[in-house]
Design brief:
Length: 107
C-alpha cells in the first residue's frame, strides 16, 4: 500500500460511526451485511449509514456487491491487513517482537 491509500483508510476510520460500521462488517465476515441489517445492528438511520459506507468503500476498506435487489457490504480483509502491515512494518526497531503478522491468516 502506498502512503496515499494509508492516509485515506485512516481518515475513513477516524470517525466513530465509520469505525463501528467497519468493525461490524469485520465481525460479519465473508457473508457481509445489507445496509438494513447493519443500520438495525448499529441503531443508525439508513441514509446516514449510506454516507459512511460510501466513505469506507472509497477508502478501499469495504466492498459492495449487488445480489438481486440487495447490496451486500463486506470488509476488505486484504486492504485491512495491508493497512496493519504498513503500520507495523518497522515495529520494535527491527527486533523480534510480540506482533504476529500471521495472527489473522484466516481473514
Amino acid at each position: 500500500m502506498n502512503e496515499e491509500q494509508i492516509v485515506s483508510a485512516l481518515g475513513a476510520l477516524a470517525h466513530a460511526q465509520r469505525l463501528r460500521t467497519f468493525r461490524a462488517l469485520v465481525v460479519a465476515g465473508l457473508p457481509g451485511l445489507t445496509p438494513s441489517v447493519l443500520a438495525n445492528q448499529l441503531g443508525v438511520a439508513r441514509n446516514a449509514l449510506s454516507f459512511h459506507l460510501k466513505a469506507l468503500a472509497h477508502a478501499g476498506l469495504v466492498s459492495v456487491e449487488q445480489q438481486g435487489r440487495n447490496l451486500i457490504y463486506r470488509a476488505d480483509y486484504a486492504h485491512m491487513n495491508g493497512l496493519l502491515g504498513y503500520l507495523t512494518e518497522h515495529c520494535c526497531q527491527g527486533e523480534p517482537c510480540a506482533v504476529n503478522p500471521g495472527a489473522c491468516a484466516n481473514c
